[in-house]
Fold each of these.
Amino acid sequence: GAVVSQHPSRVICKSGTSVKIECRSLDFQATTMFWYRQFPKQSLMLMATSNEGSKATYEQGVEKDKFLINHASLTLSTLTVTSAHPEDSSFYICSAWKTTSLQETQYFGPGTRLLVL
Amino acid sequence: DAKTTQPPSMDCAEGRAANLPCNHSTISGNEYVYWYRQIHSQGPQYIIHGLKNNETNEMASLIITEDRKSSTLILPHATLRDTAVYYCIASNFGNEKLTFGTGTRLTIIP
């Protein structure tokens, strides 16, 4: 089946530093990828839609200058958390649609756990 | 995306069939029903999806009512590894975002 990978799987950083998270579609191309955030005991919340070759679309309440998204190729999207603070500590998950002649399915990465000290 | 409603939690004995219900009474004609599950500290795993016909794959079966207002995910022989939060989502194809509700926390009991 389709595989979406994320790197790193977990990261610990100091407050005020920036952290980059990579999301890759390993066996298919994705013009659109999605970034979600999940706090403990809560459901996934969509942060933004990443579009290859154009600007990302952010959900209401998500600061685009704080969460920088770059979708430079059809297999890679990156999320950079700039000037991270403890409240940014969360589980970040990306996803991408895989389209075949038979069906379209959205696959999710394994997630990146960010801890900001 | 149409709103979906699921029970917050369910228990099922190991080896029995787990039947997880989902209501989606406002689903539109071109929205599919997707099921995902999330095991603790992992990304959601795709299970199955359907439009109006019942579907079956190696993981589960999906039964959609004729009026499409509700569906049931069936795990035929539940194992301990099926313990997870199960999400039912109604969405279109075509690079649409998926909106996650609170899901059903399924616990498989030995």
Amino acid sequence: DGGITQSPKYLFRKEGQNVTLSCEQNLNHDAMYWYRQDPGQGLRLIYYSQIVNDFQKGDIAEGYSVSREKKESFPLTVTSAQKNPTAFYLCASSVGDDEQFFGPGTRLTVL
Amino acid sequence: GQNIDQPTEMTATEGAIVQINCTYQTSGFNGLFWYQQHAGEAPTFLSYNVLDGLEEKGRFSSFLSRSKGYSYLLLKELQMKDSASYLCAVRDVGSQGNLIFGKGTKLSVKP
């Protein structure tokens, strides 16, 4: 079955720590995205990648970093520079401008 | 600027019909998507409109008027499992073609 997976489902981080969220897809999609979702707010774009070895900042990239070394993988690192990282993080992929398919999400909590 | 407006919450009765509205302002419209999101889960694609008119898909239909910057999602024969948030997202040419999401409409279906 093709799909998009994220791990872990829940993640707890101490202040000052970097953490990396995993996103893997076997849909053979070129484009991948990271969004952040906070209560009462719409999804906000953190980073996106249209092709392997290339990525661009979204609307709220500060305090985050990504890599796209393989077509299937687009990990997101939440650095200590992100002041308010507690949120629900969603990864998505698509074929060009077609609909985006979302992973199950990672809920990050800073202790 | 960019702005997507949806009602925050709606309540409807099982078996009834409900219409969820979305109005938008973008610098370069290039398509509108509707997603369904159950609490704590990934958004799933429902419909896509790029031309004016109605798109029907089973119990769900979506309408678009580009001149009015307006769309609605129509849900017929409501079921309890339709209780979820419904996200309106617009593809904006002015944002490198990325999706701009509304804050979502939380629909509660009562017996």
Amino acid sequence: AQRVTQPEKLLSVFKGAPVELKCNYSYSGSPELFWYVQYSRQRLQLLLRHISRESIKGFTADLNKGETSFHLKKPFAQEEDSAMYYCALSGLRSGGSNYKLTFGKGTLLTVNP
Amino acid sequence: DTGVSQDPRHKITKRGQNVTFRCDPISEHNRLYWYRQTLGQGPEFLTYFQNEAQLEKSRLLSDRFSAERPKGSFSTLEIQRTEQGDSAMYLCASSYTSGGVYEQYFGPGTRLTVT
């Protein structure tokens, strides 16, 4: 079974402070991990995916298979980063594929001025 | 093309009534997904289509739920004999894939309230 855990429902930081949103996953096969973001009154959108190893809006995330984690980090938070962040997993079974996304419950990040 | 669209955006219905939602994916996308999101939870997978074929259904999708994607274009999700527990945001997403995992683009959602 696929499972994604985001232990923090709420995270509040001050502008300019580092931020880390935690994500742990459980999957027996080869996972692909994503971070999705939802800004106020906007639709869910992809922020980054582990396979591309990009830095988007200053955010990075490294897949740690040993710790089954995919934490999202940004060294200096900005007020416009305030949003709901969801970690998601798509599992790739051997001999086939499974494209559905399994989401965590989300972390609401608030960046205070 | 302005992205994935869903109609209606809000639906209030009485318990026992049937409701139907529509999703129009991005035009060249061959995969279409339905998710359900309740308060305080992340989206939960319901079902997905590759072109017109429905390839997987979640156990969350009871017999009262049915989804179609005729001709591999728009999709409809119907809920028969609605219950209060069906109240949720219903999200549609689409992606293009020819192998591998591609980005899913989400619609704005349809918020269902069952009274």
